[in-house]
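User: Please fill in residues for this 625-position structure.
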């Protein structure tokens, strides 16, 4: 018995030693595997937290709050928040802090569309009017059909929306269908020809999902995306009625400028909410990003078949006459160290970005409570995903001076009083040397004929030429831009000159009238007969009122007033044009018949000239509708 026990102990010891030896042999292999786990930038995966912590330390002086979540191979690897959700009350941000997604919400729309495509309820190539109530769209200009694919590629042809996107009271927000019909923009380009990022087009796709699923769009998303993924801390309803806890969480965070100035009115409600109303935690958003990149051998919980997901993440639009992907069914293609898909978002006080590399399964969510923030949403993302290193081009490159000039975005208001805005924010491109451009102060390098990438950040710019070699536009992932030439390039300068000249005439005329009145009043000098004098003074007073009215109109537009509230300013401008016409007719009838003196005749004529200048501005800039 003792001998048997001894033999058993020997066997157990031998087996134990064998396990130890196997583990010792496995450790180097495991360590080697760990060493090979890299970020897209090429840095070790293990360095992610340290990299983010160090980055935040550098930018902490200009940071309100930022929340970062990273996923890899279906799992959340990193979830951390920094800074203050409310600086004034010293409320720190944490991983349960909710942020506004902004336009990253659009990815929920495209996912919903593809779910219904998979079920056979939608077709990406079908004219969307087949899915909408008859007569729903009343401003289509071109006969070519608009498809869901056009909506995904932002090339349905609509102009930008100028007003009524945001409301400050949730009870003012109309139902989605009503909002879309009220806001329907003019179609100014043929479908499929021009890329102009469109909130309206995305919201329209959300409404089509609503109609085909027979439930409100926010209910559809809650049921088919949020509940499926366990996104319990996320809401898409414009006032968070689908998740009151998120509404309460939103009350604990404020929005700031990049200089940490509180944006007092940073809580607003988007009328076409599928385009950008989601609010939630970064960890919830990471669940969504992870579901778009399921590990090998697993199916995405969002689709019955991964083939549908692969279709959604495959290119649907390329840069013209190239094989370079631009858009993948609503996801924008951007080259980092590896090709990736992304979407950015901005609201009144928040900025976000979602980036994913479907091939490696690596994804990143960055959310901040600062308007137009870029240190994290661009800078940190670039650090993690790495710089794009294009293949060396061995052929000849055209001189960058050929594409230099001033450009205006295709995403603009072409008809309506807000169209002047985009002429103040044009894209100015100069050639710093034959292979480099300066774009609004940012240097870009030419990597192949007419293709440029920023030197210090991610991005892409491609110039398109006509058959004669002239540049007709340039494109980035989100928009096309067209050259401004001739009078179009001088419109703002002409406007400022006309406004200055007209204002000078008005001030001179009114001051002259005031001085004459003082002389007549206090020196009791008899007034000379001047039949046109009162009309002349009233017309100049109306001109001064036009200047004030236009300034108020601009200010109220910037602070997001509704169109109905702004209409009174537009009506005043119409009245001013009518008064101008009447005054000019009066001058034509009276000046020759009455003796006014040469100096006074010139004064009356100048008043008519200033009124004509202002009327031309009203008509030329559509300041009447």
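Assistant: Residues filled in for all 625 positions:
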């Amino acid at each position: 018995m003792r001998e048997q026990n001894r033999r058993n102990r020997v066997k157990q010891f031998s087996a134990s030693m064998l396990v130890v030896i196997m583990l010792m042999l496995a450790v180097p292999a495991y360590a080697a595997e760990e060493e090979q786990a890299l970020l897209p930038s090429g840095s070790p995966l293990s360095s992610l937290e340290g990299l983010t912590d160090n980055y935040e330390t550098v930018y902490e002086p200009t940071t309100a709050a930022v929340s970062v979540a990273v996923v890899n191979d279906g799992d959340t690897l990193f979830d951390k928040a920094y800074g203050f959700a409310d600086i004034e009350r010293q409320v720190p941000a944490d991983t349960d802090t909710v942020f506004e997604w902004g336009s990253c919400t659009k990815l929920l729309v495209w996912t919903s569309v593809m779910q219904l495509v998979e079920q056979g309820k939608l077709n990406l190539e079908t004219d969307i009017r087949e899915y909408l109530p008859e007569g729903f769209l009343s401003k289509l200009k071109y006969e070519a059909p608009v498809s869901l694919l056009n909506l995904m590629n932002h090339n349905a042809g609509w102009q930008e929306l100028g007003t009524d996107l945001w409301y400050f009271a949730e009870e003012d927000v109309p139902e989605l269908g009503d909002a879309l019909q009220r806001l329907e923009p003019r179609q100014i380009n043929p479908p499929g020809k021009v890329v102009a990022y469109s909130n309206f087009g995305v919201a329209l796709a959300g409404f089509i999902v609503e109609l085909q699923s027979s439930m409100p769009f926010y209910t559809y998303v809650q049921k088919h995306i949020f509940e499926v993924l366990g996104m319990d801390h996320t809401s898409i309803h414009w006032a968070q009625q689908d998740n009151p806890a998120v509404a309460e969480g939103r009350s604990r965070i404020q929005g700031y400028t990049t200089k940490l100035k509180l944006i007092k009115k940073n809580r607003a409600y988007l009328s076409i909410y599928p385009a950008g109303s989601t609010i939630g935690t970064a960890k919830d958003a990471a669940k969504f990003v992870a579901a778009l990149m399921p590990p090998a051998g697993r199916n995405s919980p969002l689709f019955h078949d991964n083939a549908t997901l692969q279709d959604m993440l495959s290119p649907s639009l390329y840069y013209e006459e190239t094989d370079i992907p631009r858009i993948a069914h609503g996801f924008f293609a951007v080259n980092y160290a590896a090709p990736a898909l992304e979407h950015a978002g901005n609201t009144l006080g928040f900025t976000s970005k979602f980036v994913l590399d479907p091939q490696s399964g690596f994804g990143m969510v960055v959310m901040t409570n600062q308007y137009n923030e870029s240190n994290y949403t661009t800078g940190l993302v670039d650090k993690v995903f790495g710089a794009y290193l294009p293949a060396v081009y061995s052929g000849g490159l055209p001189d960058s001076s050929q594409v230099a000039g001033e450009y205006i975005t295709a995403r603009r208001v072409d008809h309506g009083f807000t169209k002047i805005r985009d002429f103040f924010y044009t894209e100015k491109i100069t050639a710093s040397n034959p292979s480099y451009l300066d774009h609004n102060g940012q240097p870009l390098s030419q990597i192949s004929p007419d293709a440029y990438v920023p030197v210090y950040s991610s991005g892409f710019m491609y110039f398109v030429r006509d058959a004669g070699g002239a540049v007709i536009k340039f494109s980035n992932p989100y928009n096309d831009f067209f050259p401004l030439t001739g009078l179009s390039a001088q419109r703002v300068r002409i406007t400022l000159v006309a406004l200055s000249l007209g204002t000078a005439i008005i001030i001179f005329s009114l001051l002259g009238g005031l001085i004459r009145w003082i002389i007549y009043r206090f020196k009791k000098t008899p007034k000379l007969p001047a039949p046109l004098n009162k009309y002349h003074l009233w017309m100049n007073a109306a001109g001064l009122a036009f200047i004030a009215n236009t300034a108020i109109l601009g200010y109220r537009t910037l602070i997001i007033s509704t169109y109905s509230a702004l209409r009174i300013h537009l009506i005043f401008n119409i009245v001013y044009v009518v008064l101008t016409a009447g005054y000019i007719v009066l001058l034509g009838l009276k000046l020759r018949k009455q003796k006014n003196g040469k100096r006074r005749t010139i004064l009356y004529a100048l008043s008519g000239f200033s009124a004509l200048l202002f009327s031309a501005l009203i008509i030329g800039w559509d300041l009447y509708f």
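For context: The longest strand covers residues 75-86.
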